[in-house]
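sorry to bug you again but im stuck and you know this stuff better than me. what follows is a protein written twice so to speak, once as letters and once as structure tokens for the fold. mainly i need to know what kind of three dimensional shape the backbone takes. anything you notice is useful, everything is just below:
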Amino acid sequence: MTFHKYHGAGNDFILLDDRAGTLHQQFDQATIAHWCHRRFGIGADGLMLLRAHPDYDFEMIYYNSDGAPSSMCGNGGRCIVRFAHDLGIAREEYSFLAVDGPHRAKLLNTGDISLEMLDVEDISEPEPDKVFVLDTGSPHYISFVEDSNQVDVYAEGRAIRYSEPYAKEGINVNFVSTDGKQLSIATYERGVEDETLACGTGVTAAAIAAVRRSGIADGAFHVPVKAKGGDLAVRGVLRDGRYTSLWLEGPAVRVFEGEF
């Protein structure tokens, strides 16, 4: 079986071309987890299948590295668009179906991929001005800290992820700091159960939390975010407490292909 490896700012994925619809039933949770294992398999934060869909350019089927079906993955969404382009699915603007609904995406002149994310309105603040909880296709806990690079992401993130009320369903935990010009982020991902070098839905959630925290008036915003694996950015519009026209931008890179 031929596989392809891609990464989005260090968030890496195994991609499979399943337009024929013959691969999906061959995978159980243990097999996917084995493929994603970094010592005994190929190694990845997740596995995706690109499947044909009658109403969209393709459908994105995503699994976390533990082999379980996952909620939306922003960097995965950008990487599967690059994969579709590399397979010869040429579009000026892509439209694909993911687990959280339809998405649009564009190839930018810089070579980066821009992915439209779902609108966000419901944001809670367990600790006002410091901790924010919101869903950007996946649930996220955003904690603003002095320096995200100094946080023990595995230990502190795991403690929050398995605390109440998050333990049963799980939550992604992000530690975010700012120098006034851009955000820096470190993420513990559920399903991977470890730190990842970037998380697209987490970057989107962090940008929204930063805009909310700043107290700026309604209007357009652009938030650069430095993940440990690369630079991303989030564009959007704030209007009457609702965050719309959200686009996640950043690299999506083909690494290699092989046979398993």
Remarks:
- The chain is about 15% helix and 45% strand.
- The first helix runs from residue 29 to 36.
